[in-house]
TrEMBL record:
<feature type="domain" description="Enoyl reductase (ER)">
    <location>
        <begin position="10"/>
        <end position="325"/>
    </location>
</feature>
<dbReference type="InterPro" id="IPR020843">
    <property type="entry name" value="ER"/>
</dbReference>
<dbReference type="InterPro" id="IPR014187">
    <property type="entry name" value="ADH_Zn_typ-2"/>
</dbReference>
<dbReference type="InterPro" id="IPR013154">
    <property type="entry name" value="ADH-like_N"/>
</dbReference>
<dbReference type="Pfam" id="PF08240">
    <property type="entry name" value="ADH_N"/>
</dbReference>
<dbReference type="InterPro" id="IPR011032">
    <property type="entry name" value="GroES-like_sf"/>
</dbReference>
<dbReference type="InterPro" id="IPR002328">
    <property type="entry name" value="ADH_Zn_CS"/>
</dbReference>
<keyword id="KW-0862">Zinc</keyword>
<protein>
    <recommendedName>
        <fullName>alcohol dehydrogenase</fullName>
        <ecNumber>1.1.1.1</ecNumber>
    </recommendedName>
</protein>
<dbReference type="InterPro" id="IPR036291">
    <property type="entry name" value="NAD(P)-bd_dom_sf"/>
</dbReference>
<keyword id="KW-0479">Metal-binding</keyword>
<keyword id="KW-0560">Oxidoreductase</keyword>
<comment type="similarity">
    <text>Belongs to the zinc-containing alcohol dehydrogenase family.</text>
</comment>
Length: 327
């Protein structure tokens, strides 16, 4: 099969012909129909997330068709469309797994990081960590739901019932979850790179009541803010934007260093918290919600061989919405 391989962090992906994997016990073999390109893929490729499996097939927002199942799999049948997300395996026995916090598992496996992912024509996955997808989305539109959507949903939950919600970094995750938040009756305030008029217009077109530069103050105090941009300097800015008791949620897996800031920004019971990975329950809840809410998913498709181009476009901020590789 054709695949794009990472041989070492900091290097471009290499096209290669490698054997089609065989499903082991509990696994399914999946023919990849689409795989979205996530900022986490950039962090892996650029070496900001250390110790990936090497060589590695990246990609963890996978939509595919089940081709074969290993021993013990009775949840999916050949021909069924499924989604494969970032969380690829958990130990099931550590204190976190046993207390309903499998996203914090002590011995996890992550698709496209420690497990080969979807930048290929086929992949294998643990069937217990795969999910049926809402029929209303085609393969390309469904792919970003599997991380941009899932992490966005978990981040939104951490923002609790915030009515005025700021979103910093209006990319793949933000454009999906902003629509979910609007459906819930929240007001969205979108913060983009300074001067990015196109992104601000994009946010306004998706229902944001205000869109401006990340260096600007919102017109009213926010109840909560979610940071999808991996820029530590935005944490103090978001703290200054939220009201007393407000929450700042850091939704990324990697962020540049947070600069020092005066305690008065944190005082009055403001909270800064991170979001780590996801749980299978997150996926069940969000995919059911996505089946009910008509989310407009903005995508730019690329052929599999153009994976490096897609990553570069994401790195340089040349995309609106999500990039999706199509084998």
């Amino acid at each position: 099969m054709r695949a794009m391989l990472l041989d070492a962090p900091g290097r471009p992906l290499r096209p290669a012909d490698i054997p089609i994997p065989s499903p082991g016990p509990g696994q399914v073999l999946v023919k990849v129909r689409a795989c979205a390109v996530c900022r986490t893929d950039l962090h892996v490729v650029d070496g900001e997330l250390e110790q990936p499996k090497l060589p590695l097939v990246p990609g963890h927002e996978i939509v595919g068709e089940v081709v074969a199942a290993g021993a013990g799999v009775d949840t999916f049948r050949a021909g069924e469309r499924i989604g494969i997300p970032w969380l690829g395996h958990t130990c099931g026995v550590c204190p976190y797994c046993r207390s309903g916090h499998e996203n914090l598992c002590d011995a996890p496996g992550f698709t496209g990081y420690t497990i080969d992912g979807g930048y290929a024509e086929y992949t294998v996955a643990d069937a217990a960590y795969c999910f049926p997808l809402p029929e209303r989305y085609d393969d390309i539109a469904a792919a970003p739901l599997l991380c941009a959507g899932l992490i966005g949903y978990r981040s939104l939950r951490m923002a609790s019932d915030a009515r005025r919600l700021g979103i910093y970094g209006f990319g793949a995750a933000a454009h999906i979850i902003a629509q979910v938040a609007r459906h819930q009756g929240r007001e969205i305030f979108a913060f983009t790179r300074p001067g990015d008029a196109a992104a601000q217009a994009f946010a306004a077109g998706l229902g944001a009541v205000w869109a401006g530069d990340s260096t600007a103050a919102p017109p009213v105090p926010l109840d909560a803010a979610i940071l999808f941009a991996p820029v530590g300097g935005l944490v103090p800015a978001a703290l200054a934007a939220v009201r007393k008791g407000g929450v700042v949620v850091c939704g990324g897996i990697h962020m540049s260093d947070i600069p020092s800031f005066p305690y008065r920004l944190l005082w009055e019971e403001r909270v800064v918290r991170s979001v780590a990975n996801l749980t299978r329950q997150d996926a069940i809840e969000f995919l059911a919600l996505a089946g009910e809410v008509p989310i407009r998913i903005e995508v730019t498709p690329y052929p599999l061989a153009a994976a490096n181009e897609a990553l570069a476009d994401l790195r340089e901020g040349r995309l609106q919405g999500a990039a999706v590789l199509v084998p």
